[in-house]
Amino acid sequence: MLAARPDARFVFVGGVDPHGARYAEEVRGRAAALGLEGAVSFLGHRDDAVRLIAGADLLLVTSRLLPGFHGWREGGPLVAAEALHVGTPVVAYDDPAVVELLDGCGAVVPTGDVESLARTTAALLASPEQRSTLAACGRRRALDLRLDRAVAELVDVYRAVAAR
After folding, report:
1. Which H or E run contains 11?
2. Distance between CA 23 and CA 144 in Å, rounded?
3. Which terminus of the chain has a lower count of CB atoms within 10 Å, N or C?
């Protein structure tokens, strides 16, 4: 990925899950072993995370089931919804919850396929037009994800059931 886009910078935002502390250390160690210190930053928890997302060219959602986390799945990642809302294009693994959330307004690659993830990321970084298209789609999709709309739709369902 960096061979194609040597100016790319990757930022990991968010606290480390206590159950995944060893994995987080492995990721940091791997980045250091590959000499990526200048391209990768680990910021930890940030209160301004949405602002950082808004300033990013892309958001990568690469959550996946890890060994030892039996049964845990990403429920509907808030970070992807936040990215849609602020118009930051999303590249994600094809977890069903993420695919449903994006609803065609993001780029999806097979879970764990790092080469596809890198190719898709590089292609989007090279194409402001594609990023703009995904951003516009994401903003429209974010309107469907608003709580007031979800509550109104739920009320309509209850009314329809009660009317029967």
Report:
1. strand 10-13
2. 35
3. C
Give me the residue label for tokens 């250390």.
Answer: 25
Distance between CA atoms of 108 and 98, rounded to whole angstroms? 9
* CATH number given to 47-163: 3.40.50.2000
Kindly state the DSSP code that residue 19 receives in the 8-state scheme. Answer: G
pTM beyond 0.70, yes or no: yes
Residue 97 has a CB neighbour count (10 Å cut-off) of 15
Q: Are the C-beta atoms of 89 and 138 separated by less than 8 Å?
A: yes
Helix (H, G, I), strand (E, B) or coil at 107: strand
Backbone angles phi, psi at 138, to 5 degrees: -60, -40
**Phi and psi for 35 in degrees, rounded to 5?**
70, 35
* Residues 121-158 pLDDT 10s: 999 999 999 999 999 999 999 998 877 877 787 888 99
Sole residue written with tokens 């930890």: 44
CA distance 139 to 125: 19
CA-based nearest residue to 74, from 83, 62, 59: 62
